[in-house]
Amino acid sequence: MARPAVAVLERHLTLYKRLWRASVFSSFVLPVLFLASIGLGVGGYVGEVGGVPYVEWIVPGVLASTAFQMAVGECTYSVLGEFKWSRQAHAMYATRVSVPDMIAGWLAYVVLRVEVAVVVFLAVVAAFGVLGSAWAVLTPLVAALLALSVAAPVTAFSASIDHDSYFALLFRFVMIPSTLFAGVFFPVEQLPLLVRPLAYVSPLWHGVELCRAATLGVAPPWPVWAHAGYLVVFAVAGVAWARVAFARRLRD
């Protein structure tokens, strides 16, 4: 069962080897520039948040949001295209590759893409000395779990729709609000009381808080197991939905 999934992963890596230059700026350069402009520029006016310099406070938020946005972006047009336009998913299914193999290989590719970007970002910020705790080495694991919890349901969503116009709704009403209000740029406690539950529902908030706990060496708002468990539930539910969506779509 493992070999077909590895073959799917190898296929996606082979395709990415031809296209990687197009993603260098958004995956590696942009997060660093964003951190420099917001963390250092705006941070000079903000001062401290929670007793730590703003640039140190925002690093885990930018790291987690990078993983979140990459996972969402990778699992939209690429997934829909394999079913609707190129029909490469149908070609794989015509071989010995099963639906679980296709999903496992694809999610492994997405997580690997996210991990490379996160490790590079972490190395850059570490060189600037803005990591306050040795526990920061755990942030790639958090980013992987966050990416999986997002990639699985978005992959299922992309396999369920028949037109790419739905992605505009996903970006506008899910990805952008999550990035703005999930504790990336300011504490969720500053939001109105009625709005805060919307932040807590987002997987990004849980990823941000776990990353922040690791980079600052502090306890997260919820127990670690609760944050991690929430992300695991999202991932498991997303994989289950993806299996149903893929099977239904492959019968077209």
UniProtKB/TrEMBL annotation:
GO biological process, one term: response to antibiotic
InterPro entries in the record: ABC2_TM, ABC2_TM_bact-type, ABC_2_transport, Nod_factor_ABC_transporter
TM helices/strands, residue ranges: 20-45, 57-80, 106-128, 134-157, 169-188, 224-246
Keyword Cytoplasm on entry: no
Membrane topology reported for the UniProt record: Multi-pass membrane protein
Molecular function (Gene Ontology), one example: ABC-type transporter activity
Any one GO cellular component localisation term in the record: ATP-binding cassette (ABC) transporter complex
Keyword list, A-Z: Antibiotic resistance, Cell membrane, Membrane, Transmembrane, Transmembrane helix, Transport
UniProt domain ABC transmembrane type-2: residue ranges: 22-249
Coiled coil: none
Cellular compartments annotated: Cell membrane; Membrane
Record-stated family: Belongs to the ABC-2 integral membrane protein family.
Full protein name: Transport permease protein
Organism expressing this protein natively: Nonomuraea pusilla
